[in-house]
Amino acid sequence: DAQRFKQLFDVEIQVAGNLKYALSPQEYHFEETRRKWGFQLDDFIVCFGSSRPKEEALILDIMPQLLEIKPNLKLILAPRHPNRVAEVQKLCADYQSKLMSDNDFDSRQAQILIIDGLGYLNQAYSICDLALVGGSFYDFGGHNPMEPAYYGKAIIMGPYHSSCAESVEQLLAAEAIQISDANNILDTMRPLLEIDDRRLQMGQNARELLVSLRVSLDNHLNGVLEWIK
Predict the structure, then answer these.
(1) pTM of the full structure
(2) Which one of 12, 65, 77, 226 has the fewest CB atoms closer than 10 angstroms to its CB?
(3) DSSP, residue by residue, 134-199
(4) What is the CATH number of the domain that holds 52?
């Protein structure tokens, strides 16, 4: 956009940055929220956020292999559209699963928590160890990877992310996200399950990127103040 304006006007143009990065999601106490949701502190939680049709099956099909790598692995499924919850429940028939609305999830007895309400996804990202961002493994355009990035989580997305391409490019440059197609999710997840330092470094990179991008708010305010002096 800045380049286009330069072609139209012979003036100095300053790029202040995207204000969407200045938003601060709510903070959650890690241990308290895990206990409240029914998880143990030593559970390894994978959160699949904003999943779309056919995407849940991608991780459910590899659950046996994931549990071999991480026997304490638990899965949070957060379908993008709550009207798909019954469908997702059926897909989880081979595992012990519970709905968020049941209010009785206990990870010592169940392996999968299905979020069936609105407003819980950020909490889920805040307590997970690894985030998968849905709508991206098939051609749905992808969903916002900056939500788990804010909470310092390693992120995996699919190749379809046209609606959030800028964010994905920035996360890739910061080595905070990995892109996997639908057929290679296990190969992408394996090193992040096996090598804690690698996963934690990705999460730290994600968080640091968000902090650096949040200067956009100051840039906007300073720019406005210059004009109203």
Answers:
(1) 0.88
(2) 12
(3) -STTTTS----THHHHHTT-EEEE-S--GGGHHHHHHHHHTT-EEE--TT-HHHHHHHHHH-HHHH
(4) 3.40.50.2000
